[in-house]
Write a structure and sequence with these properties.
With 314 residues, the protein is an all-alpha fold. It has 14 helices and two strands.
Amino acid sequence: MSTQTTHRVHGATHPAATGVWIALFSSAVFGISGSFATSLLEAGWSSGAAVAARMLGAFLVLLVPTLLVLRGRWESVAANWKPILLFGVFGVGICQFAYFQAVGRLSVGVALLLEYMAPVLIVLALWAHTRRVPRVLTIAGTVASLAGLVLVLDLTGPQRVDPIGVLWGLGAAVGLAVYFFVTAKANESLPPLVLATGGLLVGAVLMFLLGATRLLPFTATFGPVGFAGFETPWWVALAGLVILATVLAYVSGIMAARSLGSKVASFISLTEVLFAVLWAWLLLGQLPAPIQLLGGVAIVGGVLLVRADELKGL
């Protein structure tokens, strides 16, 4: 291999390696959302109100830096209204709404398992689009990741299963798959910050419309909440949900998807469930079971197999 080729390969793989770390960071901060949300829900917030406040708050935080990035170049927003709308409606709004509808009929673990079928939907969609059968490593990684997800969610014991709930869960998976397809598409005219801000605004508007039509209950309280063993004002938990689990999570998630592609990024996103378990252990004292730790190992193994398959195809 010539020196020129070596430099080219190194130049191509370095951004991808960085993308893996960004994707893991995104999963880690997405995973903490459950701990912040739990404190609000236990204090009397409805899930719809918490999600709507999360999206609107994140939009407001990102608005000023987004305006600075645009510097009046509103034509880039007008030219990219379709991905922004798709991201906001499906990747943010419908994904969240369908998941909470599923939780109303299913056990949380089953609902999460259905939502995180998104990587499988992406593999199937790419298969249908390219008409190429997935390679052995991708198939093995898919099976390992899904098996690990089942273990992390610890679905032992009685589970509530309802056909309508299953459809809502699959709807959340479709929304999540669209999120990865939209965010993975390279687009120099649409910075990740602008896509995240526009999508969060669209998602927030959609959630408030659902609340106004009473399809989604809206209840909020403004007293102290319990978090990490301490009593804190409600806005502290909401600020953590907005800044860490939404602003940083969505922006870094878009950056990772553009670097890695929809398939690899979606598989790495499965680690969000593992991070959620770990955050619940650290912040809420909910100790993960050995079976969940074993599931985490399986998820990581599956991600490595899919990533190895991608590198093999370069």
